Amino acid sequence: MSKLSIPVRKFDAVIVGAGGSGLRAAIQLSEAGLKTAVLSKVFPTRSHTVAAQGGVSASLGNSEEDHWHWHMYDTVKGSDWLGDQDAIEYMCRKAPEVVVELEHFGMPFDRTDEGKIYQRPFGGHMSNFGEKPVRRACAAADRTGHAMLHALYQRNVRANTQFFVEWMALDLIRDESGQVLGVIALEMETGEVVAFHAKATVFATGGAGRIFYSSTNAFINTGDGLGMAARAGIALEDMEFWQFHPTGVAGAGVLITEGVRGEGGILRNSTNERFMERYAPNAKDLASRDVVSRAMVTEINEGRGCGPNKDFVLLDITHLDPATIMKRLPGIREISIQFAGIDPIKAPIPVVPTCHYQMGGVPTNYKGQVVSDNGTPVRGFYAAGEVACASVHGANRLGTNSLLDLLVFGKASGDTVIEDVRSGELGLKDLPANFADFTMTRLNRLNTQTGGANVNETRLELQRTMQKHCGVFRFKDMLVEGVAKILEIEKAVARTEIKDKSQVWNTARVEALELDNLIEVAKATMVSAEARKESRGAHVRDDAPDTAANPNGRDDVGWHKHTLWHRDGNQLKYKPVIMKPLSVESIALKTRSY
Amino acid sequence: MATSTMQFKIYRYDPDKDNAPYMQDISVEVDFALDRKLLDILTRLKAKDDTLSYRRSCREGICGSDAMNINGKNGLACLTEIKDLKQPVVLRPLPGLPVIRDLIVDMSQFFKQYHSIKPYLINEGPRPERERLQTPEEREELNGLYECILCACCSTSCPSFWWNPDKFVGPAGLLNAYRFIADTRDLATNERLDDLEDPYRLFRCHSIMNCVDVCPKGLNPTRAIGKIKEMMVRRAI
Predict the structure, then answer these.
(1) Per-residue pLDDT band at A2 (split at 50, 70, 90)
(2) Annotated active-site positions of A, please?
(3) Which residue of B14, B18, B50 to mutate against A (max A Cβ within 10 Å)?
(4) A237, A527, A536, B90: least surrounded by Cβ within 10 Å?
């Protein structure tokens, strides 16, 4: 044994993260009787799923005719054809089942007059293969994520799930064959470092929206799973695709749900014009998010922004019945009063596109298994939710598909783990002798660093660089420069210094370790974005404009493929998009318009 | 926009190096154009002194992490407007729970009480193929209950919870108990009432209403507790 040995605890499965996907996976494993540990940096109901607002999609057809196949078509189109069609079919077909299940767990959905789950329209969700908006988003007022996360946690209380609350996972354990054998984690209260040795490891660590300066994301969304995977030699897929949500509160970044537009809200510029009519004549304000965000930035860039600096647009619901606002959008009213200082019943809300969601992530298949570059599963390793790239969101995610993703792939990954553990496919393999060395060396370096870089300043520099060089519109020269800057910041991250040396609840240490993860995500994003010489979904470059040969700047001949970024040497590889669904016909490439 | 200096007094304690807790005086340059909420100030302070410890996550009042005692009243730092605060602003950990470090308390007792009320839907009947039906009116009964974020502002402002944290469920737990009692889909109302019909678990509530006063989500645990008591009376007759 190495002298850097640490305590080891053994489990059938360890789940890292207790947001929607982690809790959904945990329900499967706990109810099946597997010995499972769920690790979370925060108490489960504080995970960022709690902040989701508008709804979870499922073609229940409670208010009008709907079909999973239409949902599938919208998701493929929303992804700008970069989503894998097997995974998309799987998700859309499973949607009604997992949403009804959630209702059975106790989720307090709003109701229709017949007592069924209430559904509202949402961006990009249409009936009959793109004809007109359809009510597909199942909602609990504008607190769907909160209601869902609590219902999932409550179901886990019922199932006696074993939680390790306020534990931060630091690194994956892999053996020489590449099999994943668990994680090493830090208990925040005591500073103790422990190995969680498991047959199966499920990553449900969420996204890394905090790589951008202006983000709807919580402080905790630092891409810990992505950092751990990258350091362990796992590729990160399609990291150039980041969703900028059209409606973050100007200045504060706090999210205002698309459900506001679903309930009839309208975006206006400084001339009071409903400008989305020009950009998306059919879907208007309910076009998909990348389209709306670009339209907003174009309005602002062309001088039609509002306010003294003409740097935001307005989201107007003053024409709605105040009773509807109080019933369907109470949380939004609260947020507007708190963070914009206005009551949306009386005045429109100032909004700007704000970083919101990472479409890319750890490559997985639709069973929740993490896959290597050639598509074969990495033994013992699973992932679900925002950390994973199945890929159901491709180049742009539709609103409400993230909560669905959590449920479907949280459950699927749980089921696959159960199968693999029960079939004897996965045993508890011995840990390699030096398994803790890498992590303990990292911690030691951080504890003893002198004359190093300030964590807060380094993180701010990273966030500002990402914001400036890799935003809603991207420019060739800025991307090239951005790569150089991020690689420079990486050097500072390698020598961060903290003044706090306490073993007890050392948040300075946690933030430094989070920065180690943010930098991996920033590199993956910048390098992948610089390399992709086309415009697709949320990735739009000045040197890939709209032409007859490449409508919207999309180059299917050159770039209809997934990016795979490897930490080692910032190497890029590519793999084909899966165009073959599980049972229906392929949805062929087509120019995207709304 | 105006910048000015604000005075703070903050409870500090690191068991790794301090023999006893102490109050630290700090003054901060505040830019009212950028800093609106108390959490913005804490973020500034932490950038200067990374040893200052507190919990935070969503910064929009939905995750419930950054509850603390602000000028003697419990609240969320991310929802507390700084310009309204009397100076020096006194920040302490939530009262009545053991302090781990600085503004971070051990919440085990609070969650133990929450878990004790079986905070999950109990309905062991056969699972229907589709959703269980509930009228909009029945669903409205859950408003003002399901929005609880488990921040503990209420329970840690309740004298009855301070004296009997191990026996009294506390306002947060009782609000959640009523959330399930009020749910037409839950079939365990009687068992839930039985469990609470106890001199301590429910009846330590003396309607002091501190919980209502501090709830950052505007919820009313006292009313929920009143409804539980009403149901107990009604089923007794």
Answers:
(1) very low
(2) 289
(3) B50
(4) B90
Q: Which tens digit of pLDDT belongs to each residue from B97-146? A: 999 999 999 999 999 999 999 999 999 999 999 999 999 999 999 999 99
* ipTM attached to this prediction: 0.98
**Distance between terminal CA atoms of chain A?**
61
Q: Which residues of B touch A218 (CB under 8 A)?
A: 57-59, 63
Give the C-alpha separation, A523 to A511, whole Å.
18
Report how far residue A301's alpha carbon sits from residue A311's, in angstroms, rounded to the nearest whole number: 8
A502 and B120 within 8 Å at the Cβ level: the answer is no
- Band (pLDDT 50/70/90 cuts) for residue A1 is very low
- B/e letters for A160-193, b = 16+ CB within 10 Å, e = fewer, are ebebbbbbbbbbbbbeeeebbbbbbbbbbbebeb
- Interchain contact, B58 vs A50, CB within 8 Å: yes
Domains of chain A from N-terminus onward: 242-356 (3.90.700.10), 437-576 (1.20.58.100)
CA geometry: angle at A314 spanning A309 and A319, to 5°? 150
* Chain B residue with the nearest C-alpha to that of A459: B47
The pLDDT tens digits of the residues spanning A360-390 come to 999 999 999 999 999 999 999 999 999 999 9
Could you tell me the pTM of the whole model? Answer: 0.97
**DSSP class per residue in A19-70:** SHHHHHHHHHHHHTT--EEEEESS-GGGSGGGG--S-EE----SSS---HHH
A154·B119 Cβ contact <8 A: yes
